[in-house]
Design a protein that fits this description.
Strand content: 35-45%
Largest sheet: 6 strands, mixed
Strand order of the largest sheet: 4-3-8-7-6-5
Structural class: mainly beta
Order of helices and strands: EEEEEEEEEEEEEEE
Number of strands: 15
Shape: globular
């Protein structure tokens, strides 16, 4: 992360994000340098929400670069080796344990200041998803939900998403996201 200090003689500062990551087998790796792929402001613009290009996780970090792994288990959603396109390891995980969700490469993150939800595009899952914080805003006790898409769906059919890119939100609550070189409008209804 490159931090630009406006009006300061110290024009720019690089922040390296590190976090302890727990993989799909429950093994902890301490002090991982996160290879950041996408970034969004978090609570009160005092923290960042980042995704790693190879880590397949969501990390929330402060300005000091120390991060907390809040979602994803480092497992990329993949086809069944038998070729039946069932994606047996694609999962939103268990409610209350977002580390159990399989998350692929993220190409867009949007933080909603009103409810703390973190919306994201997941390229490998071909899906538009959300991380909902748990009680008291605790993301580590939250839940990942898929709003639209699934890795087995074709682009443009049954909500299939492909070649996902950035995303933004308009004042009416709709999301606009890049999918298959087009812009799509999605109005999520979460239960």
């Amino acid at each position: 992360i490159l931090k630009i200090n406006a009006g300061s003689t110290d024009v720019a500062q690089t922040i390296q994000v590190t976090a302890d990551i727990t993989n799909h087998e429950g093994e902890l790796t301490e002090g991982n340098n996160i290879q950041i792929n996408h970034i969004a402001w978090g609570r009160n613009k005092e923290e960042f929400i980042v995704s790693g290009s190879d880590d397949r996780v969501i990390v929330i970090c402060g300005m000091d670069g120390k991060g907390v792994h809040v979602a994803g288990n480092t497992t990329k959603p993949q086809e069944d080796p038998a070729g039946d396109k069932s994606y047996p390891n694609f999962t939103d995980g268990e409610p209350g344990n977002p580390l159990s969700a399989s998350i692929g490469q993220i190409t867009g993150i949007y933080y909603d200041e009103t409810d703390g939800y973190i919306y994201f595009n997941d390229v490998n899952s071909k899906a538009f998803r959300v991380l909902i914080p748990g009680v008291g805003g605790d993301y580590t006790k939250g839940q990942v939900k898929t709003i639209l898409g699934h890795p087995s769906l074709s682009s443009g059919k049954e909500g299939g998403m492909d070649k996902l890119g950035g995303l933004t939100r308009t004042s009416d609550g709709a999301f606009w996201l890049v999918s298959n070189h087009s812009v799509r409008k999605v109005s999520p209804i979460l239960e």
